[in-house]
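FAQ: What does the model actually see?

It sees only this:
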Amino acid sequence: MNIRSLLLLALLLPAALTATAQSRRPQVDLKCEAHGMGPLLDCTVRLRGADGQPLPGAGVTLGATMPSMPMAHTVKPVKALPTAVPGEYRGQLTLEMSGAWAIEIDLTGPVRERVVRVLMAEECDGDGRCPAPPARR
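And it is asked to produce this:
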């Protein structure tokens, strides 16, 4: 192999490895409902592999920080438990106040990954439940 071939390989190899790693990343879908005055956040995480198939057997941990006050408002992580649906996990976070929260989803097991989704958690009327939609940036 000549020097030009080695240089070309050195330039192309990192890009190829990055593309391969990104193609193996799991698909993570997060849906949460707020309720109570805390508010409490009931979250469902749906995991799919890069092939689109459900990803059972993962360890899923949920945590939360308030992006506007990261040192002041941090929620202790909780383990999300698998449901009867393959690749689906549920967990509940107790937030300190309403507002935009960064939900940290840590995955272990067949994949290792951290995914962060920013949601808007508000108090709901009465004892009702209301969706926690993505926060606008």
